[in-house]
Each structure stands twice: as C-alpha cells, then as structure tokens.
C-alpha cells in the first residue's frame, strides 16, 4: 500500500523522504539564509531588557524566552515496560512551558512582532540599536505603536502568542480564529484587549479573511503563518539554544552519536524552522521527523506532491483533538525549505494522542496539550518499524547511540478544568 492510500484510510502512516541530501554541519544550506537566523537571535537579545521588564516571569532568565531540555526517566521506564528500551536516551524539549505564550509559538510569533516593533520605532527615531530596549516599555512607544494594527489567522496558539506580545507593545490586535479554536483562548485574548473574530470555517479560511481585511488598511500588518519568513527564523533560533543545552548536559551529537528529533506539525512553520536550524548545526548527524494527526496530514501530502495541497483532496480534514495541528494545507515556504533536509513525516491518531497525554502526566507529572504529544506518538510508531530499519541501514545510523528528543509544543496556558477533563481526573 502506498502512503496516499494509507492516508486516505486514516491509518497511522510513516513516510520517509527519498530526497534527503547529505548536509555538513555548519555548511551553508538553502541559500545562505542562516544569516537571518543569527539576525533573529541578535534581535531577541536586544529585546532581553524589554521582555524582562514587560513580562516579569522572564526575570529569572533576564528576558530570555527558553524552555528546558528534560531527561525522561519516567517515560523511558514506561516505554521499557512496553518493550522499547531506549537506554535512557530520551529527552523532552519542553516548549509547552515557554514563558508568555505557553507554546512553541512563543519562538516565532514573538520574534516577528518584535521585529515589526523594532522597525517602526527605529524609523520613527524612538529607539537606536545601541539603546537599552527597556525604554520601549513607555507611554511614548506604546502610543506610537498604537497607530498600527497587527492581524493574524490562527487555530489558537499563534493568536495567543501574537495577541499577548502585540497588545503589550501597544499595538491594536485582531486575531482571526478558525472554528477549531478553543473558547478559553478567545477569552484570554479578549482579556488582553485583543479583538477576536471567529469563522465557521477552517484555519485556511481564517488566514485568508485576515489577510484580506489587513490588506485594506495601510496601518495594518498581517502575520502570515502560511508564508512568513520571520516566524520561521524565530523558530530556527531554537537550534542555537538547543546546541548549548546539549553541550551543558554532555549529550554528544556526532557521526557516532546521532540525534533523532520528533516535532508536531501544523502548517509547518515551527517544525521546519527548528529543523532548518538543527540541520545547520548538526548536518547529517541530526534526523528530524514531523508528526501530524491522521485527519490533517497536510505536510506529508505536500512533501509527496512537491507542493502545498489541501487534505480535502483525500477526503480528510475532519475533527481532531490536536487543534494546534488542525491545518489542512501546509506552508509553501516551509515545504520548499524541507525538501532535502527533512527525514520523514509520521501520522498519529487521536486515541494515541490521548493515551500519551495521560502517560506524560502519570510518568513525568507534565501536562501537555494533545497536539504537543504527537512527537512522542510518532517516535513510538517509527521505532521498530520496517521503514525505520531501512532508514537506519541506508543512512548508516548507529542505532545503539541515538539520543531521541520529543519536542513538546504546547499546553502551558491551558486552564486547570480543561486539563482535568482531558486527563479524566
Ligand atoms: C502551532 C503548533 C504546532 C505546529 O506549528 P506549525 O507552525 O503550525 O506547524 C505544534 N504544536 C502546537 C501545540 C502548536 O500550537
């Protein structure tokens, strides 16, 4: 059975990229765009004093928005009881607990809005690159930015990230939400003085409507999840930080010690940005896999077809508990960037997401939203499969020395009563 048939049947499917190319660490991949990642990193650093002042929860890390790399001993024990012994080399990159937005969107979304604010304030001569950016937390700057509106289409988490940071900076904000978006997310945004417009349609419709409405207003800026490069470069900075964390924890990544990374995927911006950064850091020694719900395999479909296509073509696109991944058509930009460096895509079903959500809670005492455990489900699906055996033999992977990183992408802001309902506790 080929991958498309398997997708149509809503089976959990493993697709391996046959176009994967050799990449040297620190080589220039995809046209030297890595300079943009360094620029994003420097920008985030310039904003440390502002972030620290405006979001006191980041004070401990002096304005750095970063998450922990956690060794999963409890979860590793669970896997062992299920017959999968990873020799204690399984880790969680806990972006569910990124400050401010409680999801991976804190990386890309916040970066793009900070860039917009910086560009506007510099042009208005309200700041210089050499200033201490804590002065952006002032009436004068807020009033100036208040002339502009930031708009975004979202299934929820991107809206939260963009909404919270934009409102704090003084921008007017309009978030266009798809019908998958949860009520509590809309409520939280409205509490932050964000205008929320909801649609009786999917994510693509919300993006399209937002894009159109924004284009009518010269003082409006649209954060375009389907095409944005600034989101992508913001996400990619994760790789620079992860490299440091790996070094600190003495986790070696080289030819003899490969790194496998599993990242939940919606439109593709976040996982592609992270993958791009990681391939730049580690080249062939890192192997990145995306995880999607069986109802929304938009990235896998796009990779198979070589262009973005809607999952409705396969009769898919129905409901999934992974609302953060409920995206029917992948980003063209991300697909292009992943063509030769992504290892594969794996789809997972809602039952597994729900099961692993409980496993994380029981064995690690960590709450993750359903979307955020997709990487764990994908890893479980991949390891031991025929596709995996072929992949490691074709790519000369030393299986015994693999470190596995499950990228947990969201859940930090989910209210207590919803957590309890999901976990059945
Ligand atoms: C947005 C999101 C993702 C994936 O990011 P995309 O850029 O849409 O691919 C993964 N997990 C969670 C929880 C998200 O909110």
Provide a quick synopsis of the model.
The protein has 17 helices and eleven strands. The chain is of the alpha/beta class and 425 residues long. Strand 4, helix 7 (157-169) and strand 5 (172-177) form a beta-alpha-beta unit.
Structural overview:
The protein is an alpha/beta fold and about 425 residues long. The protein folds into 2 domains: about 5-100 and about 230-425, Rossmann fold, CATH 3.40.50; about 105-225, Rossmann fold (3-Layer(aba) Sandwich). Helix content is about 45%, strand content about 15%. The chain contains 17 helices and 11 strands. The strands form 2 sheets. It has a 7-stranded mixed β-sheet with strand order 1-10-9-8-11-3-2, sandwiched between helices. Strands 6-5-4-7 form a 4-stranded parallel β-sheet, with helices on both faces. Pyridoxal-5'-phosphate (PLP) binds next to helix 11.
């Amino acid at each position: 059975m080929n991958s498309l048939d398997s997708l149509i049947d809503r089976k959990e499917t493993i697709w391996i990229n046959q176009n994967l190319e050799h990449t040297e660490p620190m080589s220039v991949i995809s046209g030297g765009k890595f300079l943009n990642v360094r620029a994003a990193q420097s920008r985030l650093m310039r904003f440390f004093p502002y972030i620290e002042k405006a979001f006191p929860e980041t004070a401990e890390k002096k304005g750095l928005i970063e998450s922990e790399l956690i060794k999963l001993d409890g979860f590793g024990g669970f896997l062992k009881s299920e017959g999968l012994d990873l020799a204690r080399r399984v880790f969680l990159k806990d972006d569910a607990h990124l400050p401010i937005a409680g999801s991976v969107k804190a990386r890309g979304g916040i970066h793009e809005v900070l860039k917009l604010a910086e560009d506007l304030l510099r042009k208005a001569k309200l700041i210089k690159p050499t200033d201490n950016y804590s002065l952006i937390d002032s009436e004068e700057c807020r009033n100036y930015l208040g002339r502009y509106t930031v708009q975004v289409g979202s299934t929820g988490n991107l809206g939260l990230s963009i909404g919270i940071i934009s409102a704090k900076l003084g921008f007017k904000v309009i978030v266009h939400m798809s019908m998958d978006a949860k009520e509590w997310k809309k409520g939280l945004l409205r509490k932050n003085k964000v205008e929320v417009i909801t649609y009786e349609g999917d994510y693509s419709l919300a993006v399209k409507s937002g894009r159109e409405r924004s284009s009518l207003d010269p003082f409006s800026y649209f954060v375009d999840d389907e095409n944005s490069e600034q989101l992508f470069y913001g996400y990619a900075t994760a790789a620079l930080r992860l490299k440091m964390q790996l070094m600190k924890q003495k986790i070696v990544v080289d030819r003899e010690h490969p790194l496998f990374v599993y990242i939940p995927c919606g439109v593709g911006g976040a996982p592609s940005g992270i993958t791009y950064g990681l391939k730049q850091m580690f080249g062939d020694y890192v192997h990145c896999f995306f995880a999607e719900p069986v109802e929304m395999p938009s990235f896998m479909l796009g990779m198979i077809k070589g262009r973005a296509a809607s999952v409705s073509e396969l009769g898919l696109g129905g409901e999934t508990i992974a609302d953060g991944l409920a995206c029917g058509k992948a980003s063209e930009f991300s697909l292009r960037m992943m063509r030769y460096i992504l290892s594969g895509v794996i789809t997972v079903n809602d039952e597994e997401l729900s099961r692993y959500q409980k496993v994380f809670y029981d064995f690690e005492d960590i709450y993750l939203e359903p979307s955020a455990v997709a990487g764990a489900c994908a890893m479980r699906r991949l390891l031991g499969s025929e596709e995996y055996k072929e992949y490691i033999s074709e790519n000369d992977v030393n299986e015994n020395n693999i470190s596995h990183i499950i990228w947990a992408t969201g859940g930090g802001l989910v209210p207590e009563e919803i957590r309890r309902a999901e976990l059945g506790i």
